[in-house]
Amino acid sequence: MLTTRDGVRPLGVADLEEFLALAGRDPVVNVFADYRARTTSLEPRWLGGEVWGRFEDGRMRAACHVGANLVPVQATAEDARAFAERAMSKGRMASTVVGPHAAVEAFWRAVSTTWSAPREIRWQQPHLEIAGPPLVASDPLVRRTTRQDMAQLYPACVAMYTEEVGLSPETGGSGDLYRARVTQLVSRGWSFARFDEGRLVFKAEVACASPAAAQIQGVWVPPERRGEGLAESGMAAVVDIVRREIAPTVSLYVNEWNEPARRAYRAVGFAETARFSTIMF
């Protein structure tokens, strides 16, 4: 471990405890970084990137996960600018910058003159949480998926991703990697769906989890089945299962303009606790 008392440096295994304490100051907002740290122990060969810490008088004051996803952790605007300075010296490796709005905005203002133009910026994304029972009845037909469901599940995941992100996850020959990711979530018991007569009509996944929280992604209902309440009852079922078996608080973030989704989450009992921003390249 480096002995730098001030400034930004890569973290390693010896920094894990201090990093988890930092992330634990807001464990739901920081669930992605917490999850990555716990599953890799901040070992660079497992991270597939780096985690940087910013130190002051020898104490970690902020951090930044730097991989395909660049995610600031407990970072003020000043911290974000310090991380941006280091990022500019190394070049962009992230395909997405995501996290609390103020930190992401400060980071982007600093790097925008040297990094390539993003494909899209979503500045105001409500970050939602629920830490109690859902307010609507759970759909009893929602269950964990299995590998036998892949013929229906995988195309639904591709459709959701394409609709949400604006390009297919199979672009550039990435289909095998994306299929492996979907299969991994199924194997972990982190993939949930409802099927009607063999056809998938609702799905959602846990993207990451810690002892404090689980973050949901990939909530999707086929266009021809929207407006039937499947998202509300389906998410209620997911909240029930996840809170009972994975983590006590369930979170997600949603596009500000997606009013139907926001209405569904409000009906279930999710409440806004922060604003995220996402920059996609």
Automatic annotation (TrEMBL):
Residues 140-281 form the N-acetyltransferase domain. One of its GO terms (molecular function) is acyltransferase activity, transferring groups other than amino-acyl groups. It holds the Pfam family Acetyltransf_1. PROSITE patterns: GNAT (PS51186). Gene3D superfamilies: 3.40.630.30. This is N-acetyltransferase domain-containing protein. It comes from Nocardioides marinus.
